[in-house]
Design goal:
- The chain has about 200 residues and is an alpha/beta fold.
- The chain has 2 domains: about 25 residues, no CATH class; about 150 residues, 3-Layer(aba) Sandwich (Glutaredoxin).
- It has a 6-stranded mixed beta sheet with strand order 1-4-3-2-5-6.
- Helix 4 links the parallel strand 2 and strand 3.
- The chain starts with a helix and ends in a 16-residue tail after the last helix.
- About 35% of the residues are buried.
């Protein structure tokens, strides 16, 4: 292994050790996207951190995709979401991914993110939290089915949500909705069968 790679691994191991020893990370730091969204493991989020993260995108349309490596529809639509992030990012769309994988699946999460190069920040649901309260806090209609995609208008209000894999056209319609105005109040969610 090249010297620079070993040095990086040593620094990463030291940082992990310090984190493991209980040196707390300030809450405001934990919820903000890293400068390089693909560096390191996804930061952990609880509901308060999720809301704080969203507040950081006020003034932008926001697409949040909840995914997991064990969710085949999530894996199928993720490349499309990456493409949409590149296409609509210059128009004011922020995209965020949140993994619902467990600690034991972190190698799969790392591999998935390294393989896909999302170009947008990804977080992970904090283990041990009340998941039902988390789901309800994100979207009162969400019961944990995946993939779950939520769209927020520029003023931060929930504008649309999808449960299950959807075609690109549905995403484009929702993205246009959240980009066109400062406020796009809640529109009935799409209850159609996943994928169609």
């Amino acid at each position: 292994m090249p010297r620079l790679g070993r040095r990086f691994l040593s620094i990463a191991a030291l940082a992990l050790l310090l984190a493991t020893l209980g040196f707390p990370q300030p809450r405001s730091m934990a919820a903000k996207p890293a400068a390089n969204p693909e560096a390191g493991d996804p930061s952990l989020l609880d509901l308060a951190g999720y809301k704080e993260m969203l507040a950081g995108y006020h003034g932008k349309g926001v697409l949040v995709t909840f995914w997991a490596t064990w969710c085949e529809p999530c894996r199928n639509e993720y490349p499309m979401i990456i493409s949409l992030a590149k296409e609509y990012g210059p128009q004011g769309l922020a995209v965020v991914g949140i993994s619902l994988d467990e600690d034991a699946d972190m190698n799969l999460v790392r591999h998935f993110l390294a393989q896909n190069h999302p170009g947008f920040p990804n977080f992970r649901q904090k283990p041990g939290i009340d998941t039902d309260a988390f789901y309800q806090g994100v979207n009162p209609e969400w019961r944990g089915a995946m993939p779950e995609t939520v769209f927020y208008a520029r003023d931060g209000h929930l504008a649309r949500s999808f449960v299950g894999e959807k075609p690109k056209e549905a995403f484009v319609d929702a993205i246009r909705l959240v980009l066109v105005s400062a406020s796009a109040r809640l529109i009935p969610k799409d209850n159609s069968i996943a994928g169609h």
